């Protein structure tokens, strides 16, 4: 029985702790939870992650203008806050993470 417990304990440790690597930023975690669904595939014409061509014209706005649009939503496709239930600081981190990807800072 002891021999069975050790492999199971090792597997549980790997699953719960992970295999190492860089910890995710708040922005990345929030993006993956709330924004990824639309911005990875370009759903409803959402500009895609790390695709500068999708962001043509949008990047002419200031970061503050872009963030305001995220907060207010962009009818008819993007709901206010992208349905994120997070606070402004966390939402801004996700917005910055997405913007950094098209500015070449997340690659």
Helical segment count: 4
Report the CATH superfamily.
Answer: Cytochrome c-like domain
Helix content: 40-55%
Percent strand:
under 5%
Number of domain units:
1
Oligomer: single chain
Cα-based radius of gyration, to the nearest Å? 18 Å
Give the overall average pLDDT.
86
- The arrangement of helices and strands along the chain is HHHH
How many DSSP E strands?
0
Please give a structural write-up:
The structure is a single chain. The protein is an all-alpha fold. It has a single domain, classed as Cytochrome Bc1 Complex, Chain D, domain 2, CATH 1.10.760. It contains 4 helices and no strands.
List the helices and strands and how they pair.
Elements: H1 2-17, H2 26-39, H3 63-72, H4 88-102
């Amino acid at each position: 029985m002891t021999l069975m417990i050790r492999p199971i304990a090792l597997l549980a440790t790997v699953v719960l702790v992970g295999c190492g690597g860089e910890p995710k930023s708040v922005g990345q975690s929030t993006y993956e939870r709330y924004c990824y669904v639309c911005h990875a595939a370009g759903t409803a014409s959402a500009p895609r992650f790390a695709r500068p061509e999708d962001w043509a014209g949008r990047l002419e706005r200031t970061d503050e203008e872009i963030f305001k649009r995220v907060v207010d939503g962009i009818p008819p496709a993007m709901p206010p806050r992208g349905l994120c239930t997070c606070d402004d600081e966390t939402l801004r981190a996700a917005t910055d993470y997405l913007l950094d990807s098209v500015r070449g800072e997340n690659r």
